[in-house]
Structures are given as C-alpha cells and as structure tokens.
Structure prediction request, 86 residues.
Amino acid sequence: MTTVQKAVAKKNKKQQDRVPQLILKQTGSAIRCTERQRQNLKGLGLRRIGHVRVLCHTPATYGMFLKVSHIVERLLELPGDIPLKG
Prediction:
C-alpha cells in the first residue's frame, strides 16, 4: 500500500461524510521560505519533504495550497460523492 493509499484510508476512517478532498504532498524544503509560507505549511499539516496529507477541499485550504504551490504538489482531488475504498 502506497503512502497516498494509507493517507486516504486513514482519513476515510476518521471522516465518513463525503466532502470533497484534496491530497497534498510536500515536495520542497521550507528552509528558504518566508515565515508566512511556513505558517501555511503548518496549517496544511505538512511537516517534511514527502509528507502526504488528505484534507477537506475548502476555500481556506485551497488558498493555503496556492500560497505554497511551489513546494507542495497536488496529487489528487476527490469529489465528495465518490466513496473511497481503502
């Protein structure tokens, strides 16, 4: 099972309602980022390079992603009505 599948399965256990989801992976270092960009990474729950998070797709989450899109990769975007399988 890949890290993306593990993250999706873990999130699916915690949250049963079908809201749109966004899967993000940190691909770059936060060393040369501004303090505000570091705070956005922290708000997204990304701690290190290679860390994968499954988040609810809200305007706030997507806005934070756009601010750090140069060091974060969007792996997948799941619509809310598709049931996830672990």
About this structure: Strands lie at 21-26, 52-56, 72-78.
